């Protein structure tokens, strides 16, 4: 495979990872909305859609392993492929948390909440913001921005206490 074709394939893998990231971001936001609105149909839909996220993760992982096995990438490319593999796993795990929120929504049904739903949406917003910035940093290959995300979040958390 020519270097140009390899780079095109690597970019395609990055694009697929960003699609998985968008699916995950959407699942988190929609699961918290479903919980807040007690939207049982949306909760069931999110649980079913988790299968698509799982399939996307496994496709990314399989394609990444195939490239590693067949193309013998050089060190920098191997690091990028390993990052794609690891990020896909983490994104799928985050989506599993969204599925968990949807499952809790179904379990609660129309039962009244013990207290108003304030903390979970706030935590979800912060986590979603971090995820979005991390994916954007990955897309732009901005290592400094990626490293600053947890530090910024830590500072903003300390300021709100």
Describe the structure.
The chain is mainly α and 161 residues long. The chain has a single domain (3-160), classed as Phosphate transport system protein phou homolog 2, domain 2 (Methane Monooxygenase Hydroxylase, Chain G, domain 1), CATH 1.20.58. It has five helices and no strands. It has helices at 3-37, 40-71, 75-108, 119-140, 143-160. α1 (3-37) runs antiparallel to α2 (40-71) and α1 (3-37) runs antiparallel to α4 (119-140). The longest helix has 35 residues, at 3-37. The chain is flat. The model has no long low-confidence stretch (mean pLDDT 90).
Ends distance: 55 Å
Largest sheet: none
CATH class: Mainly Alpha
How many helix segments?
A: 5
Strand content: under 5%
How many strand elements?
0
The CATH superfamily turns out to be Phosphate transport system protein phou homolog 2, domain 2
Oligomer state equals single chain
CATH topology: the name is: Methane Monooxygenase Hydroxylase, Chain G, domain 1
Helix and strand content put the structural class at: mainly alpha
């Amino acid at each position: 495979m020519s270097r140009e074709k390899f780079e095109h394939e690597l970019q395609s893998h990055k694009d697929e990872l960003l699609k998985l990231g968008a699916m995950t971001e959407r699942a988190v936001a929609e699961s918290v909305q479903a919980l807040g609105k007690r939207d049982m149909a949306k909760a069931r839909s999110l649980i079913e859609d988790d299968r698509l996220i799982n399939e996307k993760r496994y496709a990314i992982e399989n394609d990444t392993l195939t490239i590693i096995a067949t193309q013998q990438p050089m060190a920098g490319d191997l690091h990028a492929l390993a990052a794609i593999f690891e990020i896909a796993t983490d994104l799928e795990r985050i989506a599993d948390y969204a599925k968990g929120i949807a499952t809790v929504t179904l379990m609660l049904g129309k039962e009244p909440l013990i207290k108003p739903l304030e903390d979970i949406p706030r935590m979800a917003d912060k986590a979603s913001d971090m995820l979005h910035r991390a994916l954007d940093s990955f897309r732009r290959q901005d290592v400094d921005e990626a490293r600053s995300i947890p530090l910024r979040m830590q500072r903003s958390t300390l300021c709100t206490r």
